[in-house]
Target: HAF family extracellular repeat protein
Amino acid sequence: MTVDEQRIAALLQSAPVPEPRVDVARAISDGRRRRRRRRTGGVAAVTVLTGLVVVGAVGFGGAGRPQAPDTPTVVAAPTAVASTAATPPVTCEASWLPQPLGGPVAVAGGVDPTGRYIVGDIGTGNEDGRIVLWTDGKATVLPAGARHAAAVNARGDVVGTGGNGIGWVYRSGKLRFLVTPPGYQAVLVHAVNGRGDIVGTARGARDSHQAVLWSADRPQEYRLVGRPGSAATAITEDGSVVGAMGDLPYRWTPEGTEIALPVPDGFPRASVEAARGEWAVGMAPGERQGSSVRMLPVLWNLTTGAVSLMPFPSISAVAGNGEVLVDDGSPLLVAPDGTSRRLPGRPEVRATEAGTYSARGISDDAMTVVGAVHENEAYRPLVWRCR
Model:
């Protein structure tokens, strides 16, 4: 058992779920999106499902949600079956991303499923960041009208939301703006898939909102998704939209069928933040601690309907193969079978303790991870390449 796997096992032995740490780089790069998605109330912390193994799977639909138990419960993980096949070791190496602009806050926030395109933000950290697109390591600064990038796809399309609440798409060297549906005042763009389908949420008066789907090819056209009160935070390659209806997680198939995603046992609500392939990750409200609520990471399998709470302080992304990216200052990748690998430190050193690392994006094969390191009161963008 590796040191990291021993650490995971130790986490599973403790009833309280570790409290998330404040990540300044994350707040800078996508705080605007996170603030809107974390409007959830508090409930008592309950069953912690161990590792990435789903001990109690919850199917789609079904009867009403169970009530939260009075005290937290820890469920032990079943013993894993040892494999006789030799698995070649995976090695990862960190390297700097070039910075075409000056600024103390330079963060890589997203990567496309293939690992070729990386998008990030460079500025002072005071809402003045310029968007940078790295293509095969070469940096391009997007036009000044592009602010707050949300995602990039395998075609190199970048999407995001300007400070004025207008969505945008950068495609083939051109910046175009997304139409805001009539009756709404602003949109919040979240994701784009390989076909160029863009999803986000339109917002209007008195907190009215609805999920919206645009095309990168036709940004002046749109389609409302679901019913009023819906919100979209992710879209998979097959066109399935993932988000919420009210306080509950939902998925909409390409045909428009509405499917309620399960919430962990004992929890009244949860939110989806990202999805890749058949996997989605999000948050559920745990214990209230003073004026704040401790948010607990959640993993869904969109194919089977299984849901599990994760015993980590924070999960920032999920890969198409089901590996989750644990962002705890020294990033960790955890596979569905519970095996893990710790990402190395910055290029000049080998110790992971040097600097505080923030990992925000992951490719579908989990072989490319992007983020930043914070040291000497500045952030520098990094990419980890594994083989």
Remarks:
- The mean pLDDT is 81.
